[in-house]
Amino acid sequence: MCELNAGNFAGWMNSFRESLVKGGGMQVPCGECVACCTSSLFIHIAPDEKETMESIPKELLFPAPGFPKGYLLMGYDSKGFCPMYDGKGCGIYNTRPSTCKQFDCRALAAVEYFPADEGNELIRQAERWRFDFGDEKSKTPREMVKRSAEFLMENRELFPKGFVPEDEIRFAVLVLKVYDLLYDTIEIKSGKSAGNLIKIIQAALKRFDR
User: Cβ atoms within 10 A of the Cβ of 126, count?
Assistant: First the structure.
C-alpha cells in the first residue's frame, strides 16, 4: 500500500476545523482518487445552497431525516456512485454541495478510525494517509484526539440515541469538533454527570453551525 503525505497534524487540524466553522473548502491532494464520489455516501445540502439545488435534478433530493425543514439529502445509485459523478469526477464541481467542499478523508486518518470493510475504497484510501507528528504542537492534540475518540466509542450509551454517529465519517468529524473540550472533560471534569457532559458538547458544537 503506497503511503500518502497528509501534512503536519496540528496545521491540518486547525485548517479542517476552520473550514467547518466558516463553511469553506479544504485543499485535499486527491490526485486521481474519486473514492468519496463512489463509496455510497449520502450528501447533505443546506437550505441556503440554492445554486447547488438548481444543479441537481429534483427527483434526486429528499428531506434529510432528523434535520430542520429545508435540509436535503442526495443518495447514490446501485453501484454506490454519487448521481453527479460523471465517470471522471464531479459533474457539478463548481456548484457542488458544501458537504463535498469540506470533505476530507484525512479526518479518518486523524482519528485512526477505519471500520473493517474490504469493499470500501474510501476506507482503503484513508488508511494510506500519514501525518507528521514531529513537533510538540502536533503531539498534544494527537493524544487528545485519540483519547476523545476512544471515550466516545466506549461510552455511546451515555448519550441520546444517534448522538454519537455510527457512520465513520460523521463520527470522525464529531471527534475533531469537540476533542479539546471532551478531553478536558475526561481529565478535569470527570465528576460531571452524563447530562452535563452532553450539554457541554452541544454548546461546543454550536460554533460549527452555519
Answer: 27
Distance CA(141)–CA(170), nearest Å, equals 19
CB 93 within 8 A of CB 101: no
Residue 29: which pLDDT band, with cuts at 50, 70 and 90? Answer: confident
Among 31-40, 47-56, 189-198, whose mean pLDDT is lowest? 189-198
Which of 199, 156, 206, 208 minimizes the C-alpha distance to 20?
208
Asked whether 149 and 175 are in contact (CB, 8 A), the reply is yes
pTM (2 d.p.): 0.83
CA-CA-CA-CA dihedral for 55, 58, 62, 63, to nearest 10: 70
Provide the b/e sequence for 57-94 (b: ≥16 CB within 10 Å): eeebbeebeeeeeeebbbebeeebbbebbeeeebebee
What lies within 8 Å, CB to CB, of 21 at 6+ separation is 207, 208
pLDDT band at 113; cut points 50, 70, 90: confident
* Contacting residues for 72 by C-beta, under 8 A, at least 6 apart: 44, 45, 53, 61, 62, 63, 64
